[in-house]
Design a protein that fits this description.
heterodimer; A: about 240 residues; alpha/beta; Rossmann fold; about 35% helix; globular; B: about 400 residues; alpha+beta; two-stranded antiparallel sheet; 12 strands; about 20% strand
Chain lengths: ~240, ~400
């Protein structure tokens, strides 16, 4: 399987008050297609920086980042915007929907920046809304939707460009547990349809949905493990091979 | 192309979402555009009525009188100048080779009565038949008096349009009798409606009688001017010639100053130009001032808008908006707020011009000025929007997403 994401010797330093903060301090990581990954770590571990880095919102101080062969670490702002638009779907803890636009318009937004004509945009946006089972709420504004519905709109927005990865930052952090369960089942389903999903979380029960969990501590990967179920499956594969 | 249309739509949505704020913000622009267009209307109207008035004064007619129209001589100096005389006219015609026609005009204010009707404060002019050549007027009905009537002092009168209306509401005045004091005159002609001269006095509110009659009945002395029509290809030469003749007539030595004045239309033009520059300058100053203030207001509100929408900008960037598209969105927003202000200004100015046209003097709002106003407000919008839009475009998406 081709490497989807490949991080090599990745470092990200910040200058804060004359001191150098090593947010990421030498990360090597390979992510393959259709993986279901959770990134865990306590606050201040570098988990957020890691997510920003994978999401192409940030550039490394040193090291390389290849996304489907494209050298992200060499990109300028416009190229970063373009790769975010084409290959990455973001889901945020606070949903980050634009309050004045309807759900459908929110979902349409990434397609506008992808220069897609209006008719096609509408069609794709409706399909994405269908995937999160919200076709009956398309013309509602975010404040007319429940938390869980809002997050589903956000997931539809992330899906609409048919990205290579879906990057979710604490997607259930602002939801009650019932909605949280719902949202996680949406992610599970998306994964089973062939999407690559990366969850950033500090909740172990959320991380459990993923097949692989990467633990970050002090800017380094502390642990990178497959979940029990997956280990069994992989072992079985090995055995039959 | 898609992104341009969408940027436009986003900008308009954002403005619509803050209608009140946008409207208040653009007030400065409204005032600026209103000032510039109304001023244009005013000047166009002034121009029009000025030119109309000027058409009563021929370009090729010189007006000799005791005082300069726009002179700075002291009044006692003018008062001490000797009066002009009727017989100068003949001398000017004999000796001046550029003189085509000349008429003396004496004037006084009188009341004209007819039965129970009275026209008050009429300018009664005594003049000769050549007045028809030096003055720009047409006889609407009837005729002007003849040279014979002038010489013999006939009691005939040509009345202005308004005078005719006051004294003879629904009747034909020609051949009817009117009285000035105790003297009876026969109406022989009515002049065509001419309107006011520079909005000051009406040319329809006058009456004309033969010079001979005027002198016999009213006075031989008193205020008088000479109107001299000259060859319009040699106006300056004619002026020099007339000055020479007048000096000879007055017996002035080489050292003495002229004790008369030669006036012409140009004097009004120069005076008018000065006034126009003053009006234009003031208007321009007000316009620039309000546009600058308005522009700063727009810039300020755009900074607020960028600040408020920091998170939105972060989201847009995360899902793929480039710096250029963010910049475009905010620039268009500023542009449209200003354009909206410009349009409101023009609409208000249209109303204003209508009122001026109706109640002050005939005028129209120049279309070119409306276009210039729109361009001007666009420029203000773009200039005012530049800094806030640039700030928005340069926001770090990570910081912006974290912004509460």
């Amino acid at each position: 399987m081709a490497d989807l994401i490949k991080l090599t010797g990745l470092q990200r330093y910040y200058e804060v008050g004359g001191e150098t903060v090593k947010a990421l301090d030498g990360v090597d990581l390979v992510i393959n297609q259709n993986e279901y990954i959770s990134i865990m770590g306590p606050s201040g571990s570098g988990k957020s920086t890691m997510m920003n880095m994978i999401g192409c919102l940030d550039s490394p101080t040193t090291g390389t980042y290849e996304f489907e062969g494209e050298k992200v670490h060499e990109m300028d702002d416009n190229q970063l915007a373009s790769i975010r638009n084409r290959k990455i779907g973001f889901v945020f803890q606070t949903f980050n929907l634009l309050p004045k636009l309807t759900a459908l318009k929110n979902v349409e937004l990434p397609l506008i920046y992808a220069n897609i004509p209006k008719d096609e945009r509408l069609e794709l946006a409706e399909i994405a809304m269908g995937k999160v089972s919200l076709t009956d709420r398309m013309h509602h504004k975010p404040n007319e939707l429940s938390g869980g519905q809002r997050q589903r709109v956000a997931i539809a927005r992330a899906l609409v460009t048919n990205p290579s990865i879906i990057l979710a930052d604490e997607p259930t952090g602002n939801l009650d547990s019932k909605s949280g369960v719902e949202i996680m089942s949406v992610f599970d389903e998306l994964h089973s349809e062939g999407n690559t999903i990366i969850l950033v979380t500090h909740e172990a029960y959320i991380a459990k949905h993923a097949h692989r969990t990467i633990h970050i501590l002090d800017g380094r990967i502390e642990k990178d493990v497959y979940n029990k179920k997956i280990r069994k499956k992989l072992n079985k594969k090995k055995a039959t091979a | 192309m898609v992104t341009y249309v969408e940027s436009l739509r986003m900008a308009l949505t954002a403005i619509w979402g803050n209608k009140m704020r946008a409207a208040l913000t653009t007030l400065g622009i409204v005032i600026g555009i209103l000032a510039v267009t109304l001023m244009g209307t005013l000047i166009s109207g002034l121009d029009r009525s000025f030119e109309k008035s000027m058409s009563f004064l021929g370009r090729d007619v010189l007006y000799i009188s005791k005082h300069e129209w726009f002179g700075d001589s002291e009044w006692w100096e003018i008062r001490n100048r000797p009066d002009l005389k009727v017989d100068y006219v003949e001398k000017l015609k004999d000796q001046g080779k550029y003189v085509i026609a000349a008429a003396p005009v004496a004037m006084r204010s009188v009341n004209i009565t007819r039965k129970d009707e009275m026209a008050m404060g009429i300018s009664l002019a005594g003049t000769t038949t050549e007045f028809t050549q030096t003055a720009f007027m047409n006889i609407e009905s009837g005729r002007f008096y003849t040279e014979g009537e002038d010489r013999s002092g006939a009691r005939v009168i040509v009345i202005g349009y308004d005078v005719a209306n006051v004294l003879f509401e629904n009747e034909n005045p020609i051949g009817e009798k009117v009285k000035i004091g105790n003297y009876v005159f026969r109406v022989i002609g009515i002049t065509e409606k001419q309107g006011k001269f520079l909005g000051m006095f009406s040319l329809d509110n006058r009456a004309i009688i033969p010079m001979g009659t005027y002198q016999r009945l009213f006075s031989r002395r008193g205020w008088m001017r000479l109107e001299v029509k000259v060859d319009d290809e040699h106006i300056d030469d004619a002026k020099d010639e007339i000055i020479a003749i007048m000096r000879r007539l007055r017996g002035l030595g080489p050292e003495e100053k002229n004790d008369f004045a030669i006036n012409q239309q140009d004097a009004f033009r120069q005076q008018y130009q000065t006034m126009k520059i003053a009006i234009g300058g003031t208007g321009f100053f007000i316009t620039v001032l309000s546009l600058v203030v308005g522009g700063i207001g727009i810039m300020n509100i755009m900074f607020v808008s960028v600040k408020e929408r920091t998170r939105e900008i972060g989201v847009r960037k995360a899902i793929g908006a480039t710096q250029a598209s963010i910049m475009r969105q905010f620039l268009l927003e500023a542009l449209f707020i200003c354009l909206f202000g410009g349009c409101v200004g023009i609409v208000l100015a249209l109303g204003g011009s209508f009122l001026i046209d109706k109640f002050v003097f005939p005028s129209t709002m120049p279309v070119s000025l409306a276009l210039i106003s729109l361009i001007l407000s666009s420029v203000v919008g773009i200039v005012a929007g530049l800094a806030p839009s640039y700030k928005a475009a340069r926001l770090d998406p990570i910081e912006a997403l974290r912004y509460e």
